[in-house]
Amino acid sequence: MAVGNSDTINRVDTDIENASDSVPKPKSNHYEVFNKINKINLLYGIVVGLSVENNWKYNNGTRWTKFMLIFGTGITVYSHFLVIAEPTKLIEVFSLFGIIIPAFAKFNVFVRTYPNAMAFIAFLRNVFKTITEGPSALVLQTHVEATFTIVKLCIFVQTLALFVFVWYPIYSYIVNNELVPIMPMQFPFVDQTTTGGFIVATLMMLKMGVWAYFGSVGFDLFLASLIDNYCALVKLLQQDLSDYIRMTRKGSGYSEQYKKAFFRNFLLKCQDKDRYIHLVNDAYADVIFKQFGMVYVCVNFIIYAIIRSNWYSGYGMLLFCLTEVYILCILGTAIKTENDNFSAAIYDIPWYDYPLAEQKKVLLLLHSSQNAMELWIGPVAPLNVESAMEITKSIYSTSTMIINTTK
Questions:
Q1: What confidence score (pLDDT) does residue 67 get?
Q2: Three-state DSSP state, 200
Q3: pLDDT at residue 25 above 70?
């Protein structure tokens, strides 16, 4: 599947910058930063055999990841049967599905939509590579620097969550000689009340936890970069719009033919931008919905297990899940903000100075921008910070109710 026509993938008109000495031409290394972000995504993907690269195919890492998902699901179901008579333990085990089900969804959507992912990356790389100087390059430079900061912050928080997840059981064993399991999992033929059985079970849980970390963080960073780079496309369009307003002023020195061609290319870029976010939504809406749904259900049980059973590793899972939710919701809010800014910029165009044909196009453009697509959490709620806050408040209320109504 192609993201757009090859002739319209990146219509960057550098003539406008070359035609006027008044326009600054700052140098930029945004393409290098863009590649750094992609290399980070690639590193996480290579670990689990799901890397976004041109020659990717089903490999041993992919098969091992699939085995780990099936094995983790089987062990979780097996653990359910062992503790089915103990409601508290049953809730603790069920909380693990908050990681397993979204992980399955991410695995399946990557394998199914791999050609789409490559098309998205090629499209964005073409945009970032072609623009090398001028105001548009400065826009991209500012954007990718902010994106790189978000990526580093996300990795730091998720790595901290992994550390919290495994720290207390290891600390308790080394310092206090206590056998505290990382997760409420039971393995066939492994007696976790003995030192040997505890070490074997802990190593298996640690392996699954690290694998889940690389897989989930890698996919989340990739999806977040796709959503975030939509904002870059909108910012570039705002810059193009400013250039068009400047060139349509009296005495600007641009021919009518050039101005019409520039505006036509601008409209085609707007179509590419709209097509891009629609295709991202079509490819990944399902996994976003499943992730938020399972996080909502299972975080309640994680909180219950933390309060009732002093499950210290649950703090790591709680931080991990909430970070995933808030990163995507923050980016969803960024989309809404950029769309609103773009719509406001179009509204301020001096359309009354334009020929009638251009006035009609501006009106259609304004209508399109005011109805720009936003990402949703399935059919439930828009993907924004307000929804994240509502989810958090609902989790607090539900978990409090569960704790107060159970022994």
A1: 92
A2: helix
A3: no
Residue type, 151: V
Give the H or E element holding residue 320: helix 313-347
Residue with the two structure tokens 């062992």:
82
Evaluate if residue 4 carries a pLDDT over 60. no
| HSE-CB of 211 using CA atoms within 13 angstroms | 25
| Residue 132 covered by a domain | yes
Domain residues for 228?
15-21+29-405
Per-residue pLDDT tens for 240-276? 999 888 888 877 777 888 888 888 999 999 999 999 9
335 or 180, which is more confident: 335
245 located within any domain: yes
Residue 91's pLDDT band, with cuts at 50, 70 and 90, is confident
Task: Tell me how far CA of residue 21 lies from CA of 17, 134, 311, in angstroms.
Answer: 8, 11, 65
Give yes or no for a contact between 3 and 276, defined as CB atoms under 8 angstroms apart.
yes
9 assigned to some structural domain: no
Q: Give the residue among 103, 331, 76 at the shortest CA–CA distance from 217.
A: 103
**The total number of structural domains that make up the chain:** 1
pLDDT of residue 230: 93
> Following DSSP, what letter does each residue of 256-300 receive, concatenated?
HHHHHHHHHHHHHHHHHHHHHHHHHHHHHHHHHHHHHHHHHHHHH
- Return the structure tokens found at 116: 């789409």
For the packed helices 385-405 and 256-309, what is the interaxial angle rounded to 10 degrees? Answer: 10
Note every long-range contact of 16-20, with CB atoms under 8 Å and residues 24 or more positions apart, other chains counting: 16/243, 16/247, 16/262, 17/133, 17/134, 17/135, 17/136, 19/253, 19/254
Q: List % helix, strand, coil for the chain (3-state, nearest 5).
A: 75, 0, 25
Q: Are 276 and 116 in contact (CB under 8 A)?
A: no
**What is the SS3 string spanning 101-129?**
HHHHHHHHHHHHCHHHHHHHHHHHHHHHH
Q: Which residue has the tokens 């055999």?
A: 49
pLDDT above 80: residue 88 = no
* 146 inside domain: yes
C-alpha of 296 from chain center: 18
Q: How many CB atoms lie within 10 A of CB 404?
A: 7
Tokens of 31: 């393409």
Say how many residues make up the chain. 407
